[in-house]
Amino acid sequence: xxxxxxxxxxxxxxxxxxxxxxxxxxxxxxxxxxxxxxxxxxxxxxxxxxxxxxxxxxxxxxxxxxxxxxxxxxxxxxxxxxxxxxxxxxxxxxxxxxxxxxxxxxxxxxxxxxxxxxxxxxxxxxxxxxxxxxxxxxxxxxxxxxxxxxxxxxxxxxxxxxxxxxxxxxxx
Length: 172
Description:
This protein is mostly helical. 80% of the residues lie in helices and 0% in strands. It starts with a helix and ends with a helix. InterPro entries: DUF305_CopM-like, Ferritin-like.
């Protein structure tokens, strides 16, 4: 009976040790490509949110309004997710790196109706194409599975939105 108790005790200790060592280690592996992806995508997403915020009051097109809302709903949580990764990785988000010029955004702000719609769609398509390039680099060079999954999600979502925006441009 003593052997059984000893064997159970040893097994329990080993199981506890295995559990505790698993809890204490960070199994997430990331590299510089993951950090660069998050640091550059955050300001890129923020600019898309700024562009989406211009839509209310400047368009009468319900499809463009819905698209802007979809962009906001997708990219706001992604910013939070990437900010969390950077914090966990000991890095900070970039504060610049936007690709649309202030002049382009000022021009866009001054427009309404069909002119606004066309310029907004063209600018957002170009903006999304930049995100596709950054996400593609993450897929090719990144190491963190969650960052790579987000990159693939960005590619899937923004390719679909580019298709939708091209359709709207062709109709308009």
